[in-house]
């Protein structure tokens, strides 16, 4: 069964949804909707699909199986409400809504209509993140004990990402009160930013300790350490490598040396696999290879599979709600909570 899909919104990040839906073998891109008729027409021509300038017209004229909302965040709740009332599953490009209150209202709508709604958070579906979840689910490192993340780079663009990555790997906080946060600002912070470094931590109902540090830096570094009671593994997001470190009888110096060698080999292997996959895709138009490499295509495949099997969505609305809760906790920890930059929250994190 091919899922007839429409993308709503033609702004930043929409290309990932258009191309991702087109690459996914189980979805058919049928329409684009954007109030800018010229932009909608240009996209429709490029992808050979139908164009609409109003959402109600799209719903009335297209027999849709799935909608991707890539519109400004302030429109999300009302548009997804209309999709829910029409019985159409929806994927919302992050952030899920403009506020926690709206996200909680959306959760109530989903429950009342038994609706299928998922949130963007495509970073959770990179090859390394998929491998990491497999290790956790298969018990490679035993019972999960902690998740520690360090993200450094362009602060405005990365802030929501480490939040939902930690939520995805470690689980949700036991309660809003369990979330602790700290922020700071550097001398290099752009004017208008109240903080460009942030830390948060919380404990899950299962006792998993989760923490993250995100800071503005000229050097990009994205590393996640996951610890269990029988071992650990480290995710290097930049190289898309996962290095498993199991405890043994070696001396500390031997363990460190072998761990370093293993990290180098794992990163080299991950890079080689990525290059090989790209080569296969370019040479053979291998859609399976493309889906393996592209987080959006892979994620869309998982969502379609879940819809067809009546299983839970890959990223449920509560993950989006918790992302907003942690963002609000970070805002509250800033020196001046009245004027917080809108860029991190409204940045496209599909």
Please give the structural blueprint:
Blueprint: E1 3-8, H1 14-23, E2 27-33, H2 37-47, E3 50-52, H3 55-61, E4 66-69, H4 76-85, E5 90-92, H5 100-113, E6 117-119, H6 127-138, E7 144-153, H7 155-158, H8 160-170, E8 180-184, E9 197-203, E10 209-216, E11 221-228, E12 231-236, E13 241-246, H9 252-284, H10 287-293, H11 295-308, H12 317-333, H13 343-346
Parallel strand pairs: 1-2, 1-4, 2-3, 4-5, 5-6, 7-10
Antiparallel strand pairs: 7-11, 8-9, 9-10, 11-12, 12-13
Report on this structure.
By secondary structure, the chain is of the alpha/beta class. The chain folds into 2 domains: 3-119, Rossmann fold (3-Layer(aba) Sandwich); 128-279, Dihydrodipicolinate Reductase, domain 2 (2-Layer Sandwich), CATH 3.30.360. The chain contains 13 helices and 13 strands. The chain has helices at 14-23, 37-47, 55-61, 76-85, 100-113, 127-138, 155-158, 160-170, 252-284, 287-293, 295-308, 317-333, 343-346; strands spanning 3-8, 27-33, 50-52, 66-69, 90-92, 117-119, 144-153, 180-184, 197-203, 209-216, 221-228, 231-236, 241-246. The strands form 2 sheets. The protein has a 7-stranded mixed beta sheet. Strands 3-2-1-4-5-6 form a 6-stranded parallel beta sheet, sandwiched between helices. It is globular. Residues 270-292 and 337-347 have low confidence and may be disordered.
Structural class: alpha/beta
How far the N terminus sits from the C terminus, by CA atoms, comes to 25 Å
| Strand order of the biggest β-sheet | 8-9-10-7-11-12-13
| DSSP strand tally | 13
Mean pLDDT: 84
CATH architecture term of the largest domain: 2-Layer Sandwich
What helical percentage do the residues reach?
40-55%
Named CATH topology of the largest domain: Dihydrodipicolinate Reductase, domain 2
What is the CATH first-level class name of the largest domain?
A: Alpha Beta
């Amino acid at each position: 069964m091919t899922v007839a899909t429409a993308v709503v919104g033609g702004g930043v990040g929409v290309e990932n949804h258009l191309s991702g839906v087109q690459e996914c073998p189980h979805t058919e891109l049928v329409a684009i909707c954007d109030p800018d008729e010229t932009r909608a027409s240009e996209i429709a021509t490029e992808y050979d699909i139908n164009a609409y300038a109003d959402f109600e017209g799209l719903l009335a004229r297209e027999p849709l199986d799935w909608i991707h909302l890539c519109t400004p965040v302030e429109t999300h709740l009302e548009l997804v409400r209309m999709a829910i009332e029409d019985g159409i599953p929806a994927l919302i490009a992050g952030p899920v809504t403009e506020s926690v209150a709206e996200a909680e209202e959306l959760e109530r709508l989903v429950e009342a209509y038994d609706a299928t709604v998922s949130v963007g958070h495509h970073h959770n579906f990179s090859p390394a993140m998929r491998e990491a979840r497999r290790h956790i689910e298969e018990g490679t490192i035993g019972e999960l004990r902690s998740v520690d993340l360090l993200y450094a780079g362009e602060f405005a663009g990365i802030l929501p990402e480490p939040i939902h990555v930690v939520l995805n790997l470690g689980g949700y906080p036991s309660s809003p009160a369990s979330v602790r946060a700290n922020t700071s600002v550097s001398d290099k912070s752009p004017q208008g930013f109240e903080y460009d470094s942030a830390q948060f931590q919380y404990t899950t109902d299962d006792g998993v300790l989760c923490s993250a540090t995100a800071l503005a830096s000229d050097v990009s570094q994205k590393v996640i350490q996951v610890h269990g009671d029988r071992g650990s593994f480290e995710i290097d997001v930049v190289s898309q490598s996962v290095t498993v470190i199991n405890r043994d009888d070696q001396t500390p110096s031997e363990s460190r040396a072998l761990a370093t060698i293993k990290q180098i080999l794992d990163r080299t292997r991950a890079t080689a696999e990525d290059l090989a996959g790209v080569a296969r895709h370019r040479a053979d138009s291998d859609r399976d290879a493309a889906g393996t490499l592209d987080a959006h295509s892979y994620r869309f495949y998982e969502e379609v599979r879940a819809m067809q099997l009546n299983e839970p969505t890959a990223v449920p609305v509560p993950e989006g709600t918790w992302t907003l809760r942690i963002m609000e906790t970070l805002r509250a920890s800033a020196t001046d909570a009245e004027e917080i930059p809108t860029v991190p929250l409204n940045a496209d994190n599909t």
